[in-house]
Amino acid sequence: MNMNKYKARVKKVVSADILEVFINLGFNIYARLRVKLAGVVSPGRVKNTQESKQAALKAKEYITKRVVNQDVLLGLHDEISTHSRHLVTVYYDTNKCLNTELVKEGLVDEFIVSDAPGADSNADISTGNRIKGIDSITVVEGE
């Protein structure tokens, strides 16, 4: 499996499986996207109970503590979610896999994605492919 990888900054945790990110497309061009974590489902999406809503909030807090306002590496999957969001694997703190951690901690429900990488996947950055569903593009002068 050849997965494209992009540097990004997580701006907001929308839910236990959806993040708002600024993705670095190269040449000081950034895009704001809402992406879905590959291989996981927020407990609030599976059942509409008070218990599942509490579990979803706990997962959201876990994600917020680890990646909000942090630079991460996104592994972009070929598939698109049912709501037209890109499926991603999120790597942070030198190759920790957020998707895998959420499942191991029991904070989200797991589902199988055909090309879901493991936490030890090669996280080298490659760019160059067009990304569908870009909400906005910002040109940033200097860094």
Description:
The chain has helices spanning 43-46, 50-67, 98-104; strands at 4-15, 18-26, 29-37, 40-41, 71-80, 86-92, 96-97, 109-110, 136-139. The chain contains three helices and nine strands; from the N terminus they run E-E-E-E-H-H-E-E-E-H-E-E. The protein has a five-stranded mixed barrel. Strands 4-8 form a two-stranded antiparallel sheet. Mean pLDDT is 78; it is low at 113-143. The protein is an alpha+beta fold. Strand 6 and strand 7 (96-97) form a beta hairpin. The protein is 20% helix and 40% strand. It has a single domain, classed as Beta Barrel (OB fold (Dihydrolipoamide Acetyltransferase, E2P)), CATH 2.40.50.90.
Q: Mind sketching the topology for me?
A:
Elements: E1 4-15, E2 18-26, E3 29-37, E4 40-41, H1 43-46, H2 50-67, E5 71-80, E6 86-92, E7 96-97, H3 98-104, E8 109-110, E9 136-139
